[in-house]
Every structure is written in C-alpha cells, then in structure tokens.
C-alpha cells in the first residue's frame, strides 16, 4: 500500500527557524512548502547552507495578503501550517510599529482565516515569544504567567497568541502556540545580539574589526539552540489536543556573560574591544527572561540539549569559517 506523505506549509521559511524546521520536516518525509515573500535581496542563503534549497517548494505570498495565504494553504494541501513569518526584531518594532502590528498581529489572524476557510482540519502552529512576558510578573515564566509586553513587537505577538487560542476555542481548530524563549544558531540574523557578538569576535580575531558596540549588557536572556527548538514545534502538532507550551532552557545569563564566552573561546579580551553605545539602548527594556519548560518536558518529552557555551562556540566557529572563506 502506498501512502501519501504529509505536507507542511511554513511561513517565514527563509528565516532562521524556517530553515531548521524545513530540514526537520524533510528528514521526516514531509513535502515541504514555503511561503516566499518577494524581496530584492537573496533570502535563500540559510536554506542553501543547510543544503535543502532545492527540496522546498515555494509559494509566492505575504502575511499582509489574505488571498495569497488562502492560495498557499489550498495549493500546498497542507496537513500542518507553521506560522513563523514575522517582523521579528524587537529594535525595529519601534521604528515600524504599524507594519509589525500588521504582520505579527493581524497576519496571524489572516493565516488562521486561511486555514479555517480552506481546511479547518489542518493543524496550526503559532510562533509566540517570551517577549510577551516583558516586564515579568513571575520569576520563572510558564504558560500561566500574565503577559506584560514592552515593545510594539511584544504587543503584536500577544495579539497573535490570543488569536490562536481564540480560534482553537471558537472553531475547534487544532491551533497551538509555542511560547519560545530566545533561540539562536549560526543562521541567526546579524542584528540579534548573539550573532552580532559572534560575528564581531570572528572579525576581530581575523583583524577585520577592532571594536564591538553594544547597548545594555546587563539584561538577561534564556538562550537556547534553534535546532532543538524546532523539534518542540513539530511535537506540538503531533499531540491529540492542541495546547500552548513554553519552550526554554530554564537557565538565564547576562549579555555580558554571553560575550565573555565568545571572546574567551577566540582567546580575546572583551574589555579591550567593548564600547557601550547609546544608540543600541532601547526605549523600554526586557531586563530578564527565564522560562520554566516543565510542561513541554512532561507532555511533549522535549528538553533543550544545547547549553549557552556550546551554542556560542558553535556560532563563533561558523562565523570564523565563513569569514575565512
Ligand atoms: P527571522 O527574522 O529569521 O525570520 C522571519 C521570517 O519571516 C523570514 O522568512 C521573513 O522573510 C519572514 N517575513 C517577514 N515579513 C513577512 C511578511 N510580511 N510575509 C511573509 N513572510 C514574512 O525569525 P526567526 O526564524 O528567528 O523566528 C521565527 C518566528 O519565531 C518569528 O515569528 C519570531 O518572531 C518568532 N520567535 C523567534 C524567537 C527567536 O529567538 N528566534 C523567539 C520567539 C519567537 P524574508 O527572509 O523575506 O525577510
Ligand atoms: P530580543 O530579546 O528578542 O530583543 O533579542 P536581541 O538579541 O535583539 O536582544 C537581547 C538583549 O540584548 C536585549 O536586552 C538587548 O537590549 C540587548 N542588547 C545589548 N546590546 C545590543 C545590541 O547591540 N543589539 C541587540 N540586538 N541587542 C542588544
């Protein structure tokens, strides 16, 4: 008996998580479809780095355009829809708050509507974020911790989260929201602090750069590896019942500690190169995030496998390799 492979549709396929998730689904035998928002620059580099650019089927579309999303869910015949597309950088959300609200907030509703209209049996994953906790209301944040977003990005993501919960409760959609804490990798965008640091360390080591300019280095994040985190996304959609899950390592570190790991690994001294630059200080800061992933462990059997030292060293290595070639 032949059996049809499952089809997965990923918005944000050209991003960090999109690339790792596409690889995971391909390894599991899925047909993988990716929504491709037309851009003038090369956005396929991550998929190429993972060697899967030719295996993904692209569908033109944008989270601002409902009809393109309806067509994407229709033509992919997706069994599972992963909504990872977003204006994902907190800093930019103060410069483009309305675009961020439209793509990261209303955009979620558009994908949910496309699923509801085309195939309400398709399973849906929403990429929610620990930024929703913002000004934290509990020392360790879990699924029951109230939200207090601190940026237009966080505000928009709260809308996306509640839209997901609401469509599950209103229409019985199998819609899950993964509240993921910061996760990084060699494929992380260079504007995010970990990658900015590992890229700078590699550049300094090779004599291409002298200083590293940062904003608030006292803030704390619960950083994990994106490759581990996409497995949690997939596991959520394999459950009988849709639900919401915190995905985190359960360990928090300061930006300074993260920098020290990177500099020490390259045999460099952070203090010789670090410059604090007001331009990178944010209008409102999320001082500390620390997740409690107990539910993901218990219900999904998921836990993080990569600690911050392993993660940052992997990123410095990748940046050294890229810059040398
Ligand atoms: P990236 O910034 O690497 O990727 C974002 C993706 O969204 C890109 O593929 C981008 O396309 C796409 N995109 C942006 N705007 C639109 C649009 N209008 N229509 C369609 N696609 C669009 O993010 P990550 O991979 O790191 O994150 C994935 C998701 O998880 C995001 O929703 C993010 O907010 C969320 N998240 C991420 C966390 C993290 O630490 N990484 C933590 C918690 C949540 P293009 O390449 O063309 O710009
Ligand atoms: P975020 O948690 O989604 O905002 O992820 P980022 O990697 O952008 O930022 C993590 C933390 O690093 C935040 O507290 C930032 O204020 C802090 N930070 C300090 N300097 C910088 C910088 O130069 N760039 C970025 N992106 N963040 C910085």
Automatic annotation (TrEMBL):
It is an enzyme of class 4 (lyase). GO terms for molecular function: GDP-mannose 4,6-dehydratase activity. Gene3D superfamilies: NAD(P)-binding Rossmann-like Domain (3.40.50.720), UDP-galactose 4-epimerase, domain 1 (3.90.25.10). Residues 32-75 form the Rhodanese domain. It catalyses: GDP-alpha-D-mannose = GDP-4-dehydro-alpha-D-rhamnose + H2O. Keywords: Lyase, NADP. Its cofactor is NADP(+). It comes from the Bacteria. The keyword Nucleotide-binding does not apply. PROSITE patterns: RHODANESE_3. Its EC number is 4.2.1.47. It holds the Pfam family GDP_Man_Dehyd. Catalyzes the conversion of GDP-D-mannose to GDP-4-dehydro-6-deoxy-D-mannose. This is GDP-mannose 4,6-dehydratase. It comes from Agrilutibacter niabensis.
């Amino acid at each position: 008996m032949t059996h049809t492979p499952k089809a997965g549709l990923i918005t944000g396929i050209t991003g960090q998580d999109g690339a790792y998730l596409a690889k995971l689904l391909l390894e599991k035998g899925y047909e993988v479809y990716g929504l491709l928002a037309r851009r003038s620059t090369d956005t396929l580099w991550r998929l190429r780095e993972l060697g899967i650019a030719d295996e993904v089927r692209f569908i033109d579309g944008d989270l601002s355009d409902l009809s393109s999303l309806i067509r994407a869910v229709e033509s992919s015949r997706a069994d599972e829809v992963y909504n990872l597309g977003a204006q994902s950088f907190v800093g930019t959300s103060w410069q483009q708050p309305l675009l961020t609200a439209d793509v990261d907030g209303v955009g979620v509703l558009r994908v949910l509507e496309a699923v509801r209209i085309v195939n309400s049996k398709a399973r849906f994953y929403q990429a929610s974020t620990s930024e929703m906790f913002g000004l934290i209301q509990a020392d360790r944040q879990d699924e029951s911790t109230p939200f207090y977003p601190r940026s237009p990005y966080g505000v928009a993501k709260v809308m996306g989260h509640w839209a997901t919960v609401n469509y599950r409760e209103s229409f019985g959609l199998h819609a899950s929201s993964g509240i993921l804490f910061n996760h990084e990798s060699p494929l992380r965008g260079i504007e995010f602090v970990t990658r900015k640091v590992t890229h700078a360390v590699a550049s300094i080591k090779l004599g291409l750069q002298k200083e590293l300019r940062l904003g608030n280095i006292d803030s704390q994040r619960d950083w994990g590896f994106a490759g581990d985190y996409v497995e949690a996304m997939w596991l959520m959609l394999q459950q009988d019942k849709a639900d919401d899950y915190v995905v985190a390592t359960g360990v928090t570190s300061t930006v300074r500690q993260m920098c020290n790991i990177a500099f020490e690994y390259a045999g460099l001294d952070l203090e010789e190169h670090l410059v604090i630059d007001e331009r990178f200080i944010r209008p409102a800061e999320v001082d500390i995030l620390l997740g409690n992933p107990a539910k993901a462990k218990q219900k999904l059997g998921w836990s993080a496998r990569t600690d911050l030292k392993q993660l940052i060293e992997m990123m410095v290595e990748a940046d050294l390799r890229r810059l040398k070639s």
